[in-house]
Every structure is written in C-alpha cells, then in structure tokens.
Task: inverse folding
C-alpha cells in the first residue's frame, strides 16, 4: 500500500489532504476443483510488514531497497514476525463498488534514442518522446549500491536536465541493489511526465538498454486516425494524442510532471470535443463526472478542479459540469450521463441565476482567457457569454431527455441573456466592446451575435487576426472556438492559414522546436528567450490540442448529424495547399472514414459509412453534374441520392458502404 492520491502530495496542499489512514478492503472468492468454494475477507487475521518500498509518492517518486524483498508468496512462508493489522476506516462510503472507471495500465514502451554524459557519472537518456509513466531500470552491481533516477521534459543549454518547471515536485526514484545477478526494476506507486531520464550512481557506464520508458495512462481505446500531405500537421496530431494519453490518467489532468496533476475543469471542457475523436472517452468521463458532482460547492457552483482540493469556481472552468455531459451525449448517443448530472447542472444554473444582474453576470473567478497572447478579455464578458452558452446546452439536453417544459424555460432564459449581452457588449456596427479575437469568437460561436450583425462581426474577427500579423491571440478559452467559428462564418481560408502557420504564436511553432506533446504556453520555449516563466511552463498540456476537433470535423469532414452517429455528416474542406488528407473515426456504430485528394484541379473523395447508418455527403463542386461516384454520374449511382446544391458543394445522401466520389475541375 502507498499514499497515492489519497494521502500523498496533492498540488500545493501537501500530504494527507483527503485523508491520512491508508485502508485496504478485499473479498477473495475461491472455487476449488471439488466444487466447494471459500470467501476470504480482510479481517483481524491479516498481518502486515514493511517491505522493499521505502518511500512512494506520486509527485516525489519511489524509493526501493531490493535487499528488503520478502518472498511472502512462497508456500510455507513464516509470517510470525509480521504485525497485526489495524481495523477500521477513516472514511466509510455508503456503498462499496468495483472501480467504475477505466483502469490505468502500462500500454507501451519507449526506447532511448541517445545517451549523453553532461558531467562525469551523470548520464542522460533521451527517449525521444514526452509522455507519462516511469522508467524501467536494468542494472548489475554490488549489494547496497544506489541508483538515482531523475526526470525532466527538456534540457538546459549546457545539456543538463531541466527541472525548474517541476516546481516543488521532487520527481526522483531511487533503487538500492541487492547484488548478484542482473536486476530489473520499475516503480509501482508513482508516475512522471518526462522525455529525459538522468541516471547517477550507476555501476559503470550504462548501455542503451539500461533504461526503458514505460507508458502509463487510463487504457482508453484509440478511435481516431489522421494523416495528411503536411508532415508538420501530422506531427501536431501525434503531439495532441500523446498529450491526451499523458493526461487522461484516472482523471483528465492538466499536466503529468510538476506538483499539480489535477483534474482542472477548464482544460477538460475545451478539449473534450477533440478528445472524443481521438479516444473512446465515454466511460472515462462518466466516472469523472461523478467526481465533478461530488466536488460541487454548496452554493451550486462547480469547482475549478475535480476532485476538489478546496479551490474556487471560475467561468470557463465550471462549464465542464455542463459541456462535458453534453459532448458525451452527442458523441455516443447515451443520455444517461445527462440524467445522472441533471440535478447538479440545475443547481449550477440556479447559482448563476442568483448572481445575475439584469441578465448580465459579474466576473466568476479570475482566470479569464488563460495564457492569451497579450489579449486579455473582460471577466464579466466571459462569464455572461458562458452563462448564455450553458443555458443553450441545457435546453438541448432537456429536449433530448423528455423535459420539454425545462427546455422551453432554458430557451427563454437564453434569449433574455442574449438580449442583455447585446445591449451591454455589441455595437451597432457589429463590433464588440472588448475587441479581442476571443470576444468575437464567443459572441459568434455561442449564438449571441444578432443574425443581421454576424457578417460584420465576422469581418471584425478577421480584422482582429490581421491586426496580429495573421496570427492567433487566443488563450485556453478562445482557442477551441477559433477555427470552428471561422468555418461557421465562411472563412475556412483563414482557418487553414492559422492551422498551418509556423510563426509564433501558432500550433506549428512548437512542432518546429521539436515538441512531441502540446505545450502549456504558446511560448513555453522560444529561440529568442529560451524557457518561459518556470512557475507555469508545462511541456505536456493538452488544452491547445483542442484544434483536433476542427481537423476531424472540418478538414476531414467527419461529424455527427444526430447524437451517436446514427446519421452522419461528411463535409470535408480541402484547403491549405494540402494534396491529400486521410482520417477515420471509430464511432459507437462503426468506423467512419474519409480520404480526399486534390488531383488535376478536381477533388477525389473516398468514404466509408458504417452499417445501419446514413450519411449526408458534401462533395466540393460548383456544378453537381460534374460529380461521379464509382465512375458513373453520382445522381445515378446505386445507393446515392442527390439532395441539392449548397454553397459550392453537391449534397448527396448515402447508406452504409464505401463510396468513391470524383468532382471534375
């Protein structure tokens, strides 16, 4: 047994935040060959002793003394020197149940690509990939020799291990040899976020096989694939998946390396749409939403971290309590998560109603558009916009779960808040009072901008991008809405420009600097300044990876028309100078695939629709007559029904199967 999350170091709260007395309870069911059975319970007959694990903490690391190993599993082992166990429980849950989430497992291994020796006796293994897990050590030596392992994401300019950004987390493992034969060890009760392993105290000079990286995370099935003709874009997608893999570990954490590793709600809600394409997250979020509900404040406000460690509530973070159930329903068509969370979501809305002033909200929390690029946004604006968005999603979920009166009530409340928002923040010419990119994105994406002002507001949004030399300025809040909103207003050209931009600040800037995961900051490391402020500088933070939603939904054109993909929309948006793009998504109903190629000025679109579903397909073509499927005019192809021409696309309906559309130039 070890302290784990329960009694170990938690963020800045130190040890024993949730409790101090470690408890173990089990029922072992045995069935014998003669048909009899037996149940062994944890009771006063159990005994305990200290073993080779001398220290174990999620943040600090693990210390193991192999000289103290006990062969307690050997038949006939004498446990008379072991001590009686202490009975009782500090926490008595009302119900005992099997773990409701997805187990954390070892899912892969990473081999070193290089070893350096920045100073005598200190070796640094470069594993070539930032990830969450630990290192497996292979070593031979004398009894009592101690090997020290330290972990980091980056190197200092002199080649030494960069650990300043880990803050107070020690992130160090120790292994004491028992001597004799070759020894192989890996920890059991800690994890680290790292690319580099510093090894000291090693007997002799280690070979490349002395260290192996062990990848550890909640074992969620991979459901998405993405590949294009742009190698930087492909690397970006890999970084996004590695970031999710590293931070979906028991709960959706912010980062896996420093003294934090908490279930930050803001990070979770901005990324959940992208996450649902990359992995099967339904069960993972169903379990975590129980933590979210459990962490809800008495006032009805959702905490900004779940499980709660005594923190505040903040707009954009609290929204995870509503946005995440909404996305899980949309992705998987399962309304149970809505029903389970409905009382808590209503309590949050009641909390917001209670603090409303003529439809507007005073600031909730202090984060705002976190880590924006010199483009801060008024906190009252953000809180009011999110309040309206919450009401909009609540109306949709109420309608989906047979609550028509509540749906109508939330729709009316949304209209009232939208009217107040327009009065307070929208100018007659479609400008907003605080003209940042994120301000326009929230107004447009949340349906707060009046229809007659949307074209003007869209133009102002583009101007806000142009004023930044064609670069983004969004932080955690705005980033997930940036490209989807540009698509909404008919500016896929700008969406592609931003996605494929290599200049700082951009997604591909970090790729060009050798990143293998998504960074916390757009400028976590720059050529000009080196490392940014170590107080807030994770190199494995998935929030900006929310762009993967647009990569699937718009670039590849895979989206749900109805919850759970019973009806599918295939609407790719070729652009950015890409020659091809292939993507797939393993929906709850089967695999959806698209592959488009730009050839001789025309478009070739291959797609697969799973069994017992239908898809509405948008083939980019100004003239539907030039579109073929399977070598014949598409409108006459078996299983294909022409619907209409729509804004530069020929629209068809197809059933399950595979199709090959070609739009001649």
Result:
């Amino acid at each position: 047994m070890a302290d784990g999350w329960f009694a170990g170091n938690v963020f800045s709260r130190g040890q024993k935040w949730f409790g101090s007395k470690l408890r173990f309870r089990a029922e072992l069911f045995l069935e014998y060959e003669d048909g009899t059975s037996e149940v062994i319970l944890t009771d006063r007959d159990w005994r305990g002793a200290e073993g080779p694990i001398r220290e174990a903490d999620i943040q600090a690391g693990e210390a193991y003394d192999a000289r103290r190993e006990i062969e307690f599993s050997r038949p006939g082992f004498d446990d008379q020197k072991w001590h009686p166990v202490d009975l009782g429980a500090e926490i008595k849950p009302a119900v005992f149940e099997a773990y409701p989430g997805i187990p954390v497992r070892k899912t892969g291994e990473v081999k070193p690509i290089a070893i350096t020796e920045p100073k005598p006796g200190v070796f640094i293994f470069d594993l070539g990939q930032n990830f969450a897990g630990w290192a497996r050590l292979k070593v031979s030596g004398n009894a009592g020799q101690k090997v020290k392992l330290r972990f980091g994401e980056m190197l200092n300019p002199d080649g030494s291990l960069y650990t300043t950004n880990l803050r107070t987390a020690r992130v160090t493992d120790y292994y004491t040899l028992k001597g004799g034969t070759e020894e192989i060890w890996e920890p059991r009760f800690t994890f680290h976020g790292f690319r580099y392993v510093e090894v000291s105290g090693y007997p002799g000079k280690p070979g490349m096989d002395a260290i192996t990286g062990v990848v550890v995370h909640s074992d969620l099935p991979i459901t998405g694939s993405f590949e294009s003709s742009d190698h930087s874009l492909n690397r970006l997608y890999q970084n996004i998946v590695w970031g999710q893999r590293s931070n979906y570990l028991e709960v959706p954490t912010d980062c896996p390396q420093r003294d934090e590793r908490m279930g930050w709600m803001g990070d979770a809600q901005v990324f959940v749409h992208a996450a649902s394409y990359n992995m099967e997250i339904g069960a993972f979020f169903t379990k975590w939403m129980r933590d979210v509900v459990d962490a809800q404040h008495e006032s009805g406000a959702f905490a900004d971290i779940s499980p709660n460690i005594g923190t505040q509530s903040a707009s954009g973070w609290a929204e995870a309590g509503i946005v995440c159930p909404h996305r899980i329903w949309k992705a998987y068509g399962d309304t149970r998560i809505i029903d389970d969370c409905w009382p808590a979501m209503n309590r949050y809305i009641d909390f917001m109603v209670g603090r409303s002033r003529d439809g507007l909200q005073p600031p909730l929390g202090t984060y705002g558009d976190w880590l924006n690029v010199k483009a801060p946004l008024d906190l009252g604006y953000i809180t009011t916009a999110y309040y309206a968005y919450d009401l909009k999603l609540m109306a949709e979920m109420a309608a989906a779960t047979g609550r028509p009166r509540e749906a109508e009530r939330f729709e009316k409340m949304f209209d009232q808040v939208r009217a107040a928002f327009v009065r307070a923040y929208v100018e007659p010419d479609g400008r907003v009072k605080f003209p940042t990119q994120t301000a326009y994105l929230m107004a447009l994406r949340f349906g707060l901008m009046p229809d007659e002002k949307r074209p003007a507001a869209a133009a102002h949004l583009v101007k806000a991008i142009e004023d930044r030399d064609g670069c983004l300025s969004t932080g955690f809040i705005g980033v997930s809405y940036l490209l989807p909103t540009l698509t909404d207003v008919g500016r896929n050209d700008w969406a592609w420009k931003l996605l494929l931009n290599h200049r700082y600040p951009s997604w591909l800037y970090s790729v060009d600097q050798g990143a293998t995961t998504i960074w916390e900051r757009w400028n976590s490391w720059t050529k000009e300044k080196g490392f940014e402020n170590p107080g807030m500088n994770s190199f494995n933070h998935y929030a900006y990876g929310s762009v993967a939603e647009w990569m699937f939904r718009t670039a590849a054109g895979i989206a749900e028309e109805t919850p759970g993909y019973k009806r599918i929309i295939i609407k790719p948006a070729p652009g950015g100078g890409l020659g091809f793009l292939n993507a797939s998504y393993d929906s709850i109903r089967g695999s959806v695939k698209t592959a488009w190629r730009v050839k001789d000025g025309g478009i070739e679109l291959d797609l697969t629709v799973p069994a017992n579903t239908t898809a509405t397909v948008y083939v980019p073509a100004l003239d539907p007559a030039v579109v073929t499927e399977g070598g014949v005019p598409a409108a006459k192809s078996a299983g294909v029904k022409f619907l209409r021409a729509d804004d530069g696309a020929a629209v068809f309906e197809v059933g399950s199967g595979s199709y090959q559309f070609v739009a001649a130039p």
Notes: The first helix runs from residue 4 to 7.
